[in-house]
Each structure stands twice: as structure tokens, then as C-alpha cells.
Amino acid sequence: MSVSVKLSAGSNFPTMSANTLDGNTIALGRTHHDAIWQMVVVYRGQHCPLCTKFLNRLEEFKTRLLKIGLDIVAVSADSRAQLEAHKEKLTTSFPIAYGLTQVQMQQLGLYISIPRSEQETDHDFAEPGLFVVNRVGVIQVIDISNNPFCRPDLEALVSGLEWISDPDNDYPIRGTLAY
């Protein structure tokens, strides 16, 4: 059994970046434009139909998230060619990056799986993870899973983010007492 170190709410998101199909490098966990938060969604890759559904469903919430100053980026360990093929099934307009390394997966405390066969994929991949990081690089929300079946309900997540983004609610980062 291997040891997996998990990130803590209230800790700094690790400095890392990944590539996008337009040839740019995007900083993960760092806000862009006028955003006050960034949501980093780690997905398994093109081989996962549940990931495709999740990303497409997340697109439906993009306007609400932008309204509260939150931008979205998704990333997987897929290759450029795999992401290009996957884009045909995606209806997303937020940035999607590729090439997440095993070291980066470990830095994020993600569960990592080996493919069941060559038909699934040709590389180890991260199981789902979602991080909401504030403008100073501190993790506000963490959700990780060891399989594709356990993910946050997007309506509940976005409603919660809308609530905690309201300064009148003065909602602190929760779950900071990690042992």
C-alpha cells in the first residue's frame, strides 16, 4: 500500500501549470482576468464517459460561476492527441488542459489509477478532483474521489459557492483541522 498525502483546506495550492490546445500554458490554482476564485477540475480523461458528462454539465453552470467571480479550468493526464479527440464530445467553453504529470497528481493528493487495458487508455491517470482556490492561492474547497462515481452535485456546489461568496455571510474556510 502506498502513502497518499492530501492537501488541506486553507493550505496553499501547489504551483503548477498545464498546456492547452491553443499552445498556451495555464497556471492551475491561480485566478485569471478579474476572477476572485478559480475552480480546478481534474478529470480522468477521454476514456471516461462520466467525466465527459460532468464537464458538459459544468458548462451549464459557467454563467452563474462567472457572476460570483469564479473561473474554471479542467485538466487531465491525457496527451494532446487524446484531448483533441475528446473535444469532439465536449460542449465546454472553459479552458481544458492536458498533460498532468504523475508528480502533479501526487502534489494534489489525488488518487491515481492504472489502466485496466490498452483500450481504456495508455497511461496512469488521476481519479476526479475539484479544488476551488481563492485569489491568493489558498484552497477554499476540496473534493477528491477514488472513482468516477463520487463527484459533487453541481447544483449544490454552485449554490454553496454563491452563498459563501457573499461577503455578508462571512463564511470561513471549513475543514482546516486536518491531522
TrEMBL record:
GO molecular function terms noted in the UniProt entry: antioxidant activity; oxidoreductase activity
Domain Thioredoxin, first and last residues per copy: 7-166
Transmembrane segments: none
Xref: InterPro entries: AhpC/TSA, Thioredoxin-like_sf, Thioredoxin_domain
Superkingdom to which the source organism belongs: Bacteria
Protein name: Redoxin domain-containing protein
Species: Shewanella atlantica
